[in-house]
C-alpha cells in the first residue's frame, strides 16, 4: 500500500516516524517550501523534509497545493492513503478523492473545538483544563471531517504552548499507530462532528500577542504561556516592544485599584509586579527591545523599571 505523508513543522515529525517504524510504504512526503530563518535569513528546510531526507523519501514542496501541477505530482505516486499532520494548506477536492482509503489528519485538539491553524496556542490562552488529538477524515471545510479516533491530554498550569506541542505531537503519533490497523481493516466507524459545538482557532495575529493590562490577571497569565515559545506576548516600555515570556500564576483577584492597568508596582529579584484589571501579575522572564530574553532579576542588575511606570503606552 502506498502512503503519502503531508506535514511541515516539528509537530508532524513523530507521526511520520510512526509510519516508517510501522513498516508502512511511505512513497513520498509533501511539505511547505524552504523558508528564510534566523537573523541571517538562511533558507531552511521544514523539519518534516529533514526527516524524510534521512530516510531517502522523495519530497514534494509545492508553493500552492491548489495548482493542478501539484496534485498531478502527488497522483504520480498512486497513493492508497494520505496522512496529514500540520501541513499548513487546505487540500483541494481533487486530492481528497484520490486515495482508496481517503485522507486522514492528525489534529491537535478535541474536535469540533479549536478547528484551524493554532489550536494548541488558543487552548492554553483560553485557560482550558484539557485538550487532545483527533484523527479525522479530511473534508472540503476547515477541519470539518468525520472523526475516527481521539485521545485526551490534560493542560497543567506549568504548560506553555511549547510543552503542549511536544506532548500532543507524541500523543498524536501514538494515536496514529493505534488507529491505522483498525482503519485499514474497516473496523472503525467515523463519527460526524457536532457543528453546534464547533469553535475556531485561527492563526495567531498581532492583536493576540499584545497584552491588554485591563484584562484579568489569569487571562494575561494564560496569554503569556499560550504564546511561548513563539511569537511571544508583548507590551510597550518607553515606546518600544517589551516581550513577556513568563509570569507567575496570580493569586485571588483583589479588584480595582487607584493605579491604572499596566502600572509597575515594584521590581524585585522575584519579578516585576504589574497592575491588571482585577489585581496584579508578577512577570518573571522578559525581553527588552534589542536584547535577549532574561529573568527579571538579571534585567534588574543593569536596568531598573521604577514603580509608577505604565507599560503599554504608545509613544506620543
Question: What is this structure's SSE topology?
Answer:
Elements lengths: L1 E6 L5 H9 L3 E6 L4 E3 L4 E3 L2 H8 L4 E2 L7 H8 L5 E5 L7 H4 L6 E5 L11 H7 L4 E8 L9 E8 L6 H24 L21 H4 L7 H10 L6 E5 L2 E8 L16 E5 L2 E5 L4 E8 L6 E2 H7 L14
Parallel strand pairs: 1-2, 1-6, 2-5, 6-7
Antiparallel strand pairs: 3-4, 7-8, 8-9, 10-11, 11-14, 12-13, 13-14, 14-15
Helix pairs in contact: 1-6, 5-8
Catalytic activity: L-methionyl-tRNA(fMet) + (6R)-10-formyltetrahydrofolate = N-formyl-L-methionyl-tRNA(fMet) + (6S)-5,6,7,8-tetrahydrofolate + H(+)
GO molecular function, one term: methionyl-tRNA formyltransferase activity
GO cellular component, one term: cytosol
Radius of gyration: 22 Å
Q: CATH topology of the largest domain, anyone?
A: Rossmann fold
Report helical residue fraction.
Answer: 25-40%
CATH architecture title of the largest domain: 3-Layer(aba) Sandwich
Number of strands: 15
CATH homologous superfamily grouping of the largest domain? Formyl transferase, N-terminal domain
Number of domains as seen in the coordinates: 2
Strand content: 25-35%
Poorly predicted residue ranges: none
* Overall morphology: elongated
Distance between the termini: 64 Å
Q: Number of DSSP helices? A: 9
At the first level of CATH, what is the class of the largest domain? Alpha Beta
Mean pLDDT: 96
How is the main sheet built? Answer: 7 strands, mixed
Q: Decide which structural class fits the backbone.
A: alpha/beta
Query: Which H/E pattern describes the elements?
Result: EHEEEHEHEHEHEEHHHEEEEEEH
Domain Formyl transferase N-terminal: 1-178
Domain Formyl transferase C-terminal: 203-302
Protein name: Methionyl-tRNA formyltransferase
Keywords: Protein biosynthesis, Transferase
Amino acid at each position: 500500500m502506498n502512503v503519502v505523508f503531508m506535514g511541515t513543522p516539528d509537530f508532524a515529525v513523530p507521526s511520520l516516524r510512526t509510519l516508517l517504524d510501522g513498516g508502512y510504504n511511505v512513497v513520498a512526503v509533501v511539505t511547505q517550501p524552504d523558508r528564510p530563518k534566523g537573523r541571517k535569513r538562511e533558507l531552511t528546510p521544514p523539519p518534516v523534509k529533514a526527516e524524510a531526507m534521512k530516510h531517502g523519501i522523495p519530497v514534494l514542496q509545492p508553493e500552492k497545493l491548489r495548482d493542478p501541477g501539484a496534485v498531478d505530482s502527488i497522483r504520480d505516486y498512486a497513493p492508497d492513503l494520505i496522512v496529514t499532520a500540520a501541513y499548513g494548506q487546505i487540500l483541494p477536492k481533487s486530492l481528497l478523492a484520490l486515495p482508496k482509503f481517503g485522507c486522514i489528519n492528525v489534529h491537535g485538539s478535541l474536535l469540533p473545538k479549536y478547528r484551524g491553524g493554532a489550536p494548541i496556542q488558543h487552548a492554553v490562552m483560553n485557560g482550558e483544563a484539557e485538550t487532545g488529538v483527533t484523527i479525522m477524515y479530511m473534508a472540503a471545510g476547515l477541519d470539518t471531517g468525520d472523526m475516527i479516533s481521539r485521545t485526551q491530554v490534560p493542560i497543567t498550569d506549568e504548560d506553555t504552548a511549547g510543552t503542549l506541542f511536544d506532548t500532543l505531537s507524541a500523543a498524536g503519533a501514538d494515536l496514529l499507530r493505534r488507529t491505522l490497523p483498525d482503519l485499514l481493516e474497516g473496523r472503525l466507524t467515523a463519527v460526524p462532528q457536532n457543528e453546534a459545538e464547533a469553535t475556531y482557532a485561527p492563526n495567531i495575529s498581532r492583536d493576540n500577542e499584545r497584552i491588554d493590562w485591563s484584562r484579568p490577571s489569569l487571562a494575561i497569565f494564560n496569554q503569556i504561556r499560550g504564546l511561548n515559545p513563539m511569537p511571544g506576548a508583548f507590551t510597550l516600555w518607553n515606546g518600544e516592544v517589551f516581550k513577556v515570556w513568563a509570569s507567575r500564576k496570580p493569586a485571588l483577584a483583589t479588584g480595582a485599584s487607584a493605579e491604572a492597568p499596566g502600572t509597575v508596582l515594584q521590581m524585585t529579584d522575584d519579578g516585576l509586579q504589574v497592575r491588571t484589571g482585577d489585581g496584579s501579575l508578577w512577570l518573571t522572564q522578559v525581553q527588552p527591545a534589542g536584547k535577549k530574553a532574561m529573568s527579571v532579576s538579571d534585567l534588574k542588575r543593569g536596568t531598573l523599571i521604577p514603580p509608577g511606570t505604565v507599560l503599554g503606552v504608545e509613544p506620543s
